[in-house]
UniProtKB/TrEMBL annotation:
This is Ribosome hibernation promoting factor. The gene is raiA. GO terms for molecular function: ribosomal small subunit binding. Belongs to the HPF/YfiA ribosome-associated protein family. Long HPF subfamily. The keyword Cytoplasm applies. One of its GO terms (cellular component) is cytosolic small ribosomal subunit. Residues 130-183 form the Sigma 54 modulation/S30EA ribosomal protein C-terminal domain. CDD domains: RaiA. Required for dimerization of active 70S ribosomes into 100S ribosomes in stationary phase; 100S ribosomes are translationally inactive and sometimes present during exponential growth. It comes from Gemmobacter fulvus. The keyword Cytoplasm applies. Associates exclusively with 100S ribosomes, which are dimers of 70S ribosomes. Interacts with 100S ribosomes.
């Protein structure tokens, strides 16, 4: 597994890098069969250290966790415990559903746009009707099952996930509701 360990405006020493590789490697070995790489970023905000870790699994799913504490090693340990819990749940779900993905997840390319209202405040109504594109980027849409989409939503720190449903090939959305439940939008079933 490849590791990318870095710090935002702080120096990461060899001892911390060795500790991260050993501890994270142990967690990943226990629950994930074929991880591809891990990205760990340390940062500091006032008196607290923050640790963000993302592990890319060979199935195409990502697991992400964050931790914070007053010491950098404690911040990593908090992050590692959350990652351990997420990967344990992921492994349990795979075992319960007797579902083994043989082929990796396929990703289709699409465009993503961020829209903003114009800064001209002459007419409030026309400002809300005339948004301008302020950012455009390429994004990848995975081709997965609904169960895998829900699992990806829970593994990552996302509020919603757009995916291509392997069952029928249509575009679907799963999202985290305000009440804590997961919502699923399948436009094909709206007829």
């Amino acid at each position: 597994m490849r590791y990318q360990i870095s710090g935002k405006q702080i120096d990461i020493g060899e001892a911390l890098q060795t500790h991260v590789k050993a501890e994270l490697g142990e967690v990943v070995e226990k629950y994930a069969q074929r991880p591809t790489d891990a990205v760990v970023v340390f940062s500091r905000s006032a008196h607290e250290f923050h640790c963000e870790a993302t592990i890319h699994l060979s199935t195409g799913l990502n697991a992400a966790a964050k931790g914070h504490a007053t010491e950098i090693y404690a911040a990593f340990e908090a992050c590692r415990e959350k990652m351990d819990k997420q990967l344990r749940r992921y492994k349990r779900r795979l075992r319960e559903h007797h579902h083994e993905r043989i082929a990796p997840v396929e990703f289709g390319a699409s465009s993503s746009y961020i829209l903003a209202a114009s800064e001209d405040t002459e007419d409030a109504e026309s400002a809300t009707l005339q948004p301008i594109v302020i950012a455009e980027m390429e994004t990848k849409i995975p081709s997965i099952t609904v169960g895998e989409a829900v699992m990806q939503l829970e593994l990552g720190s996302q509020r919603m996930l757009v995916f291509r449903n392997e069952g029928h090939g249509g575009v679907n959305v799963v999202y985290r509701r305000d009440d804590g439940n997961i919502g699923w939008i399948d436009p094909r079933n709206s007829k």
